[in-house]
Structures are given as structure tokens and as C-alpha cells.
Amino acid sequence: MIIHRPIAPVILIRPALQMGLALAVVVSLGTTLIAAEETSAAPSPSATAAGNTDTSGLSLQGKKVGITVIGTDHYWDLRAYQGQIDEVKRLGGTPIALDAGRNDSRQVTQIQTLITQKPDVIIEQLGTLTVLEPWLQKIRAAGIPLFTVDTASPSSINDTTSDNFYIGEQLAVQLANDIHGEGNILVFNGFYGVPVCAIRYDELKEVLKFYPKIKIVEPELRDVIPNTVQNAYAQITELLNKYPKGSIAAIWSAWDVPQVGATEAVDTTHRSEIKTYGVDGSPDVVSLIKDPNSAAAAVVAQQPYLIGKTAVDNAARYLAGDHNLPPYTFVPAVLVTKQNAAEAQTFLGQRP
Amino acid sequence: MSDVGKVPDQVRPDPLLICSNPPSLRYGATSSEESADLKFVCGENRMSTSILTEHPVQESRRTIWNSQLLVRLSSLLAFVGVMIYFSLAAPLFLSYSNVLNVVQQSAVLGVLAFGMTTVFISGGAHVISGGIDLSAASNMGLSAAIYASIIQAGGTDWIALPVTLLTGLIIGAVNAGAIVGLKIFPLLATLATMNICAGFELVLTQNTVVPAASPLLTAVAATGSFAVPNIVYIFFCLAFFLIILIEATPFGLRLYAVGGFREAAIAAGIRVNRDVSASYLISGVCGSVAAILSLSLLNGSSPGAGEILLSVVLVALLGVIVSRRSVPTISGTLISSLFIGFLVNGFQLTNVSSYWVNGVQGGLILLVVAGSSFSRRAAY
Predict the structure, then answer these.
(1) How many other C-beta atoms are found inside a 10 Å radius of the C-beta of residue A50?
(2) Under a CB-based contact definition with an 8 Å cutoff, are residues B3 and B272 in contact?
(3) What's B371's domain CATH number?
(4) Is residue B290 part of a domain?
(5) Any A CB within 8 A of B227 CB
(6) How far apart are CA B231 and CA B107, in angstroms?
(7) For A103, which of B101, B105, B304 is closest by C-beta distance?
(8) pLDDT value of position A162
(9) Which residue of B297, B344, B355 is in closest CB contact with A108?
């Protein structure tokens, strides 16, 4: 289930490969979901993880593990955070868990104090890399091993993440396919500074290079934190007034909270010709996709709890002497569409 | 003296009478504080010379004074108790590097709170009509965004620094103009400026982090002599300068006089508008200085600067506890900003959830508000 591989350069999609790729995805997802269905007794991602990862012999007995996250207000963040804390406790360690409440300054403060505390290892989750990098370097300079979750940093020994190149490409291919390679799309691009969002966005652009009839409406939209849903709803409602029926084909966002606001706006204004796309797979979004009357067309669902757990397992392996960890550990994500949403809910442990 | 004529004779108190209140009748004043208090009499003694001889009122005042002392003492005990507990529970708490960390982490909050304290002093303690600068935090956000944008556009520190300081000054001047010129309540005037600043910041940054690296910011973020971060030196130098300015110069004395009893200050010939304006300009510049410290810590401007506002108000209010006369002071604010820093730090060192910090801060606010409401009842 877990794939270790070095980071790849930005994948260039070639038109000839696209159909094959899309087919492969459909087949592989189908297989995965069928497999998941067969083992659907597993109620949550954590249970799924336990069945797929060999953690026997791992121990954090007597170890202190610093966990610093930028925020836990989003489903993904919270699940990954919980995954880390639970796994540290399960392996007998003591977590020093710090939630920065979506505030860069507070996270820097927490990291600074964490360095003074000298835990055996620090795991950092998300945040703004330009702000964090000098402080991550200080963690390493203090001789503390650093692992990251969804944060590609040269200071990190290992980054556990979804394959965001794959996620971005899959979402873009699905979008292009759904709108028959033609039409204007609205794009939320407010967090290009967050590496995973940048990768997904760049992948969208790479795919669209080969669909010249799909145009991104300029200026792009800025999603915000907090009040993401309300803000996205307001922005899309306003734009739907500006652009008449038939002139917008789809709405793309790098995560799924703006997608919720956008979907609501489209559904409220009965613009059923517009489809919405996002990433993460929060339970409310997967439910929206499952609803045949909703504008939500697809989301690439990640497994945040498994990602958090895997990061801790990697840290435990390192502390046990395994210094040959690859720089990246990719945890698979699944493309959820109207066709497979019900099965995906089961697989993701989101059974309603 | 030009302002004197604006006060009708029937409401103008006699400055001599105000300044001749027997110290023993002033709340919070003891004989040992007498000399220190003399310079603040206009600021603290909301007078009522006509009732000075009434015994029941004196009794009531004494009771209130005792209650207020109790609240202050319990607050101080809470301060000391928390520090002792953390130093016992976490051996690292009082280590050299940890103390320096805390001071460095408290600098941005402290500098903004210095500005807030200054406008508290000049505006008086009234919740609605008193002095307050709600734009302090968003001023910092906008100033940081401007500095970072200039650096991003290829500008140097020589351009970015003066433009940033000028931004703070302009924001201070707009506040002063609205409050002094248009006679708008500070609460509302600075609320408007706060929104303007936040809006401009969004326009400039598009709600994203704008990275900024420059020689000045690197120097500010660096560690200086005795392994002390330069931010700590800057923070203490600014604190020292403001303590002298506010607590030991005629200008500071006038600010206390204006905030304590505006009409009396006017009658005494103080140019009230000029001094109130100056306090908002100081707060504006504090916003810009805090922006530069924040830029150096975060390697750029970061959205969400406005979130710090309530902490700034809290720190400026908390400072009142450590003042002997229960008035806002820069030194009190310095201590309270460090206290909040130690509180957050202590929670992390003892592995207590950071979510508890909010609850403790709320408790402290309650204590301060209780203390200041006693003060007001004693004053009238």
C-alpha cells in the first residue's frame, strides 16, 4: 500500500498517454475499491493502515516526539494530526503535540521552544515553507531528526505525503474528460505558496496545455482561510451573475473546502451545467459527490490518518537505526467520482 | 492655553483644587507613594472635592480600595505562582536560552502593546469613549506587506524601511485626525482604520505569504553579543526609550493628565489635541516596528496579522496590575507581555495543551476588568 520512491520531476503528460493513463486509473481504482469492498470490515483508514504496513518490532518506548502542525481546522489536518498522536502513543512514546491554530507566527514560536525541549524527533505538518524553512534548518542544526508530513523540505529526512503529482494530474484529466475538453473554468489558486497546492496547480496547467479549448478565467480566484466556504460561495455567486449560463464549464480548487462553497453556489443558482473539482476527500465532499443532484463532480481523496501514522512509523524506524529511508513516502490517494462515491466512502472509513 | 476658553466656566474645575486633594483620600495612594503620585494627580483623581468631607463616602471608598488591593494582590500572586510552578515543573523554564527565546517571542506582541498602552494613557479608561487603537495589529500586517512587497519588487532596505515607518505614521495620523479632528470615538475611528489596513494588505499580498530576504531583516533576525538575539536588544531599547518618554518626561505627564481628566487638563493649559494625536502617532510607529520584527522572524509577511489584536489589548490591560497606581504604564506592559510569553512557553514545556492558554488568558482578563471596575467606582 505504501510506496517509497524518490521525488519525481513535474510529470509532463503527453496526449498519447492520456487515454491509457485514464484507463489505468479507472482500472486500478476499480481494483482497489473492489479489494476494499472485500475487506470492508475495516471501518477506518487506521485499520486499513494497520493491515498494510508492517510496524511489528517498532517502538518509541521512552522517546519524546515533537509534533508541530500549522492547524487542525480542516478534516485532513485533524486526521493526520490524530494519526500521528495515536501512533506515537501506540508505540509507547510521549507526544508533544502542538497546534499552531493556522498562525505562522505561533508555529515558529512553538518550533523554537520545541528545539529547546530537545525531543528525540520532530514531525512537522504543513505550513508555509518560506516561513518555516529557516526554523526547520535550526531543528537539524540542533541535532534533532526532522520528519515532515505533506511538507517537501530539504531539511526533512523523510516527507510522508500523497503523490500530489498524481493527484493533480488525475483531477485535471477527469475534469478535461467530464467537460469534453472544452470550456471556461474558474480556478481557486490562493495557496500557491503551499507546495502541495503548487504541485496540483502546476499539474492542472500541464494537462490543460494539451486541451487548448479549455481556458482558465482570469483573474484566478483567491481562496482564503478562515471562512473558506462562505468566501468561496460569495465569490462564485458573484461570478455566476457575471457569466451567463453556458459560459462556465467547471470550477477547480486545490483542496476541497472551497469546493464546498463553490458547489453550494452552483446548486443554489441551478447552474447544473457547471461541475466542481477538489482534493482531500473530506466526508462532506464525498457525500456531495455521491448526491446525483449536486454539482460536485470529483475529488481526489487522500488518507490523512494513514499519512500521519506512516510518518511516525518512519521516524520510529529511523530512531531504531534505519538511516536508509527514502526522502519521500507516498500514501495512495483515490479519485472519487459520482460512479464510485459510495464504495469510496467505505474504503475511506466514511460510511455514513 | 487656547483650549481653556472652550470650557464653560460652570463646568471648569479649578486645577488648584484638583491638585490639592489630600493624598490620603485618593484610592490606591499611600503616604509612601505621595511624592510619586503628585505628578499624576490630574490623571488619577476624578476629584469631586465637594464630597471629600463626607465620612460614609470615605468608608465606602476604603472598602472598595481594600477590595481593589485584594484583586491586585491576587493577580500578582497568580503571576508569581505561575512562574514558580513552571520553574519547578520544567527544569528548562529558567534556562538562559529559554528565557531569551521567550523574550524574542514576546517582542512583536510587546511592541504593539506599547503603542496600545500609550493610547490607553492619553485616552482614559472608559470602555466606549476611552483611548484604544484597534488598528494596531492590521497596521503591522499592512506595514509588513509593504516592506515585503518593496523587497520583492527589487527595492532595498533603504527604500523599504522609511516607507514602512512612514506607513505606520500615516495610519497613526489618520487615526489622530478622525479622533481629534472629526471627534469620532477612538473605538470606531480605529475600527475603520483597521479595516482599511486589512483591505490594503489583502490587495497587496492577495492573502498569500510574501517572502522577503534583505540584509536588514537578516541582521535583525541574527544573534548578537552574549548569544542574545538582536530582536531582544531592539525590544528592550524601544521599551527603555518609551519608559523614559512616557514615565519621566513632561510629555508623558501630560498624557496621563489628558487621559485622566481631560477637562482639567484643558483648564490647566495642556494642548490636549496635540498630545492625543502624538499618542496615536506613537502607536502607528510601534505597528511598523513590530512589522519589521515580524518580517525578520517569519522571513516575509504572513496573512492573519490581525489575529494578534486581542492579545495586544490583553497585554496592555494586564500591565495595569503591576502598576502601583493601577494605571497603564510601559513598564507594566513590558512585564505583562513577558508574562504572557512565559505562560505560553510554560504550557508547552510542561506538555499541557496550548488550548488551555486561552482559558487562562480569559481568567486574567476577568481579574483585570474586576480590578479596573473597582478603580472606576472608587474614582467617582
Answers:
(1) 16
(2) yes
(3) 1.10.3470
(4) yes
(5) no
(6) 7
(7) B304
(8) 93
(9) B297
**Mean pLDDT of the A91-107 span:** 92
Higher-confidence residue: B71 or B179?
A: B179
Q: What is the mean pLDDT of chain A?
A: 86
pLDDT at B185 over 80: yes
Nearest residue, CB atoms, A130 vs list B207, B209, B297: B209
Chain B nearest-CA residue for A191: B208
CA B17 to chain A, closest CA, distance in angstroms equals 51
Mean pLDDT taken over chain B: 82
Site from A130, A201, A222, A224 to mutate, B interface, most B CB atoms within 10 angstroms? A130
Confidence band of B368 (pLDDT split at 50, 70, 90)? low
- Say which CATH class A45-162+304-332 falls into: alpha beta
* Residue B2 within a domain: no
Nearest-CA distance B146 → chain A (Å): 17
* A17-30+164-301 CATH fold: Rossmann fold (3.40.50)
Q: Is residue B4 part of a domain?
A: no
CB contact under 8 Å between A98 and B108, yes or no, is no
Residue spans in chain A of domains classed CATH 3.40.50.2300? 17-30+164-301, 45-162+304-332
B96: containing domain? 9-36+49-379
DSSP code per residue over A261-313: HHHHHHHHTT-TT-EEEEEE--HHHHHHHHSTTSSEEEEEE--HHHHHHHHHH
Q: Which of A98, A108, A112, A231 to mutate to test the interface with B (most CBs of B within 10 A)?
A: A112
Is the preceding peptide bond at A226 cis, omega within 30 degrees of 0?
yes
Q: Yes or no: say if B104 and B110 are a contact pair by the CB < 8 Å rule.
A: no
Question: Does residue B42 sit within a domain?
Answer: no
Question: How many beta-carbon pairs below 8 A join chains A and B?
Answer: 72
Pick the residue with more confidence: B50 or A55? A55
Q: Contact at 8 Å (CB) between A158 and A326?
A: yes
- The answer, yes or no, to whether residue B35 has pLDDT greater than 50, is no
